[in-house]
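TA notes. Do not distribute before section.
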Amino acid sequence: MVCATNKDLEGAVREGTFREDLYYRLNVFTIDLPPLRGRRGDIANLAHYFLEKFSRQMNKKVQGFSPEAMQALKAHDWPGNVRELENAVERAMVVAQGDVIERSHLPLHAVVSGQRDGKRLEDVEQRHIEQVLRDNGWNVSRSAAVLDIDRVTLYHKIEKFGLKREQ
């Protein structure tokens, strides 16, 4: 059996909050693995692994990540660790229409936390919505689906940010 936890089980045993007998049944061999945010060098390799995995599963020919998308992946802190990265790549694969994962295909939280330039959340949201609209030819229904919001909400945001289709 392989088990994973983000808790200090030895400490929990000492404090009496984890059963000692269970700890010794489970603790045959321990591997301490830092969280993904402490292993940023692994992010690109893992992202490409998940890309290949989902390319096969979805029968899509997505070749890689744009430099901006990879930068966002590497900058994100990944509080959900590898599972969160896997889910982000899977979502990007679902919404990607070309052969490259773009920054706008990533979940908003990964793009937002990847912003290290001190911009307001609202600015990041505006850029993200604008990019998704461009990627989808300003098709509001499709863009709303990508953003996981309803069309009315998207129309309100377009009006709020004064977004206009470039001619």
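Switch to the second chain here.
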Amino acid sequence: MRAVQISFGLVIVLIGLLLLLVTSGLVALTPLDVVGCAFILSGLCFWIPGIAWRRALPWLTALFLPGVLAFASGAGLMYTQRTESGFGAWSYLWTTLLIALGIGFLAMYWLGPRARWLRVVGMIVVGVGVLLFAIFVMAFAIEPTARIAGPVLLIALGLAFTVGALLPRK
């Protein structure tokens, strides 16, 4: 119960800090930024019960899945507001939802019941998401730095597979 109280207290403090920055004029928010912040905060709130009661009720870690999807959607909305490509960025940002889903499965494995299939599914979904993100960002991104991220991600993914194959198995 104490963890839930601390988590809600921290969420309220974050909302207060954001509102202070907005009212002081240091940060300018559009309506879509507010929606993005709401998605991010709701995604974080999905994690609170799963973390607080993971030992007593391990099935609550299933709340990580909608939490990471809401968080990734909010982050994507905020990103599209800040870049010149706007909503055209969703032509490659949709793959971050796959990556977030895989991270949700991995979090369920690490923090919940240690079911092996959660780790396997999480790794596969994250890997496919990163691969698709790298391909789609190279094809559709307008920003030069985003276009460079695709080949760098492909190189990192290839190195991860290679190093993983060279490591000794149990």
